Amino acid sequence: MIKIHNNCSGYKAAGPPGLHLAVQKREKPCAVPLQIFRITRSLTFSETILPMHPMLNIAVRAARKAGNVIAKHYETPDSVEASQKGSNDFVTNVDREAERQIIEVIRKSYPKHTIISEESGELQGEDQDVQWVIDPLDGTTNYIKRLPHFSVSIAVRLKGRTEVAVVYDPMRNELFSAVRGQGAQLNGYRLRGGTARDLDGTILATGFPFKVKQHATPYINIVGKLFTQCADFRRSGSAALDLAYVAAGRVDGYFEIGLKPWDFAAGELLVREAGGLVSDFTGAHGYMHSGNIVAGNPRVVKAMLANMRDELSEALKR
């Protein structure tokens, strides 16, 4: 067990930073420096807020309870204990405590549902048609290093199809949510993804395949090919937030290799409900099994796939 010691102070924010909200008499944005986050287009308040899906209500409640645990420990770094559960893979007591809070909220309302979690695996319920796919702390390494960029991710799948999604950033109090067929929102404001027509001038997010390093060579080749076409890359360390940022238009596209279902289950619905497209590296829907994912608006995804095609190994085509 590794005890984490750090005297840095915590960081908290009360609302969505850098947003230009096209409404009056709403809660003021928090005083977060705009250089930290900047949205690339205005978000317009929807007069017809998404009806609160019963399971969305529970997912939001669970995400906020987990977020409170995460934020509390972030402010008291000596309370964080980390251990290594695999190569380049860590877990903390905060992951486990946040997971317990989420499971407790879900079980109280839906005791028969199945829960799939990064830390506990599959907790089978009597009703296996409904699955809650949760990552209590996506971005654990950032958390350990006191880099304030991580999230809680919760998705609800019905017979294999994602119906509800929540990604919560407790440090900025940003709650991204979506219900299938009803759009995506950030703190009650409707989201639409970016409008880029090709890769020129785009910002692409990605993550290094540190758990599947056998794909390092084709991955580096893909990065090199895309780098010649786009403006820049971002590598933040939280797949759930990367996908949420695609939905918000903060980045134009995203690709990564070897993700697990809890990494992207919520984020992929956010992207699709914000008008985007999600596929595997061949343009198909195999990402649910392979964990190889490409996301963005349809034109950006098409351009990314075209540039990636010649660099794919046979393993990445499956």
Automatic annotation (TrEMBL):
Q: Name one GO biological process term.
A: transcription antitermination
GO MF term set? inositol monophosphate 1-phosphatase activity; metal ion binding; RNA binding
- Keywords in alphabetical order, please: Chaperone, Cytoplasm, Hydrolase, Magnesium, Metal-binding, Ribosome biogenesis, RNA-binding, Transcription, Transcription antitermination, Transcription regulation
Q: Which domain of life is it from?
A: Bacteria
On whether Transcription regulation is a keyword of this UniProt record, the answer is yes
- Gene Ontology CC annotation, any one: cytoplasm
| Cross-referenced Pfam families | Inositol_P
Q: Which reaction(s) does its UniProt entry say it catalyses?
A: a myo-inositol phosphate + H2O = myo-inositol + phosphate
Q: Does the keyword Hydrolase apply?
A: yes
Reported cofactor(s): Mg(2+)
Q: What is its EC number?
A: 3.1.3.25
Entry's localization field: Cytoplasm
Instruction: Tell me which InterPro entries the record gives.
Output: IMPase, Inositol_monoP_metal-BS, Inositol_monophosphatase-like, Inositol_monophosphatase_CS, Inositol_monophosphatase_SuhB
Enzyme class, top EC level, equals hydrolase
Q: Which residues bind Mg(2+)?
A: 118, 135, 137-138, 263
Q: Which family does it belong to?
A: Belongs to the inositol monophosphatase superfamily.
Q: What is the name of the protein in this document?
A: Inositol-1-monophosphatase
